[in-house]
Specification:
alpha/beta, Rossmann fold, DNA Methylase, Chain A, domain 2, 2 domains, seven-stranded mixed beta sheet, three-stranded mixed beta sheet, 15 helices, about 35% helix, EC 2.1.1.37, methyltransferase activity
């Protein structure tokens, strides 16, 4: 097997899938992503990996400590590192330019692997329930066609395509399965495909989060699926948050916080805690009177029945959202004794209130860093805004949209084992 397997990440988001593959020893050639804030996050992360490989992590620490600017950080790494994050929507009129940039970055090398999955809204059950036409005809339904164009051009040995489980039931206006149309197209491109529905809590992640992971292999061989090794450690939310400082609603900051001692092992085994670098984004949203009244009801229901409150069960005076048909479990308890939390959602800053139960001694909503830990992002992962000014909304959206890093790493580790 080649030692330096290189990959391309399409629809990369903030890089959860990519980070897992990097941790497993794969090397990124480029990331393609339409969201500008996520692209800044990716550039910052790629800068970190380059600086780490060069033995210059102190430069990155200076940035996290706000001693240098984002532009200063980017100026310390080769220009091609910054260029490797391609801020483009993947569409017919952008393919030529995207291909040109990737070709330049490859410098004649063979691309071994493509990873990534199109935005999930058009396939998700929630997304379809919110749309008047069930998202039939939504252009995002057809992004897999462009994914196939990358397979045709670069002919990698494998590809890893991820998406929500709603893809299995999504159909077009003629009742045809999008998933089966995808697999047929990938076969026409020369790839056999096999898939599994993997649930993150079986791989060390404290979330009940399911994803379709489809793997394609060039040629006609079957029976190649890289079954990731399960890992179900005995760890709870209380332990995962135990070394973060106690803060109340409205407290904390995007800048580094003073950590408490951590004497256990899971945060290290999961690749989350890094004692050499500052920990950022431990910042709680403020609570208003309505939040606090709802939280009291949420906690009371949890303590008595271990149930999460549904939005329509609230009195009318406490309902401020017009959407009553989806995201009905907006208010979620995060209790210390839980071994698996509810899925961390992309709309955390708007619709999702993850309430820290009083048994963790903090009467407030979850912070971006806590959400990132539930997604198994390393503590040294910094989530950017478009402007170099921290913004919780951008951070939460990126964290919630991501594939849990540890799940990605488990897939990548097994893929390396079975590589051609």
């Amino acid at each position: 097997m080649k030692n330096n397997l290189c990959f391309l990440d399409l629809f990369a988001g903030a890089g959860g899938l990519s980070e897992g593959f990097i941790q497993a020893g794969f090397s990124p050639v480029a990331h393609v992503e339409a969201d500008q804030a996520a692209c800044f996050t990716l550039r910052t992360r790629m800068a970190y990996h380059w600086l780490k490989s060069a033995g210059r992590e102190s430069v990155y620490a200076d940035y996290l400590n706000s001693n240098t600017s984002r532009d200063d950080l980017y100026a310390t790494v080769p220009e091609e590192i910054e260029k490797s994050v391609i801020n483009k929507e993947i569409a017919e009129d952008s393919l030529k330019e995207i291909f040109g940039t990737i070709d330049m970055l490859l410098k004649g090398k063979k691309l071994d692997l493509i990873i990534g999955g199109p935005p999930c809204q058009a396939y998700s059950l929630v997304g379809r329930s919110r749309a008047i036409n069930g998202m039939v005809g939504d252009k995002r339904n057809y992004l897999y066609v462009y994914y196939a164009e990358f397979l045709k051009r670069y002919k990698p040995a494998y590809f890893v395509f991820e998406n929500v489980t709603g893809l299995l039931s999504a159909k077009n206006s003629r009742g045809k399965s999008y998933f089966e149309k995808m697999r047929k197209l990938f076969l026409e491109c020369g790839y056999e495909t096999e898939y599994r529905v993997l649930s993150a809590e079986n791989y060390g992640v404290l979330q009940t989060r399911k994803r379709i992971i489809l793997v394609g292999r060039k040629g006609n061989k079957t029976g190649f699926y890289p079954e990731p090794d399960m890992w179900q450690p005995k760890v709870t939310v209380g332990e995962v948050f135990s070394d973060l400082p106690v803060i109340t609603a409205g407290e904390g900051a995007a800048t580094p916080c003073r950590m408490k001692a951590y004497k256990r092992s899971w945060l290290y085994e999961a690749g989350i805690r890094n004692d050499a670098l500052p920990v950022t984004w431990h910042q709680a949203r403020p609570n208003n009177k309505q939040d606090l009244e709802i939280y009291r009801r949420v906690v009371d229901l949890w303590d008595k029945k271990k149930k999460r409150l549904e939005y329509d069960d609230l009195p009318e005076r406490l309902k401020t959202h017009t959407n009553r048909t989806s995201f009905v479990d907006r208010f979620k308890v995060v209790a210390a004794d839980l071994s698996a939390s509810h899925t961390v959602v992309a709309h955390l800053s708007k619709d999702g209130h993850y309430y820290i139960h009083p048994d963790i001694n903090q009467n407030r909503s979850i912070t971006p860093r806590e959400a990132a830990r539930l997604q198994t992002f390393p503590d040294d992962y910094y989530f950017e805004n478009v402007k170099p000014i921290p913004g919780r909304t951008a951070a939460f959206r990126q964290i919630g949209n991501a594939v849990p890093v540890l799940l990605a790493r488990k897939i990548a580790e097994k893929l390396r084992e079975v590589w051609i």
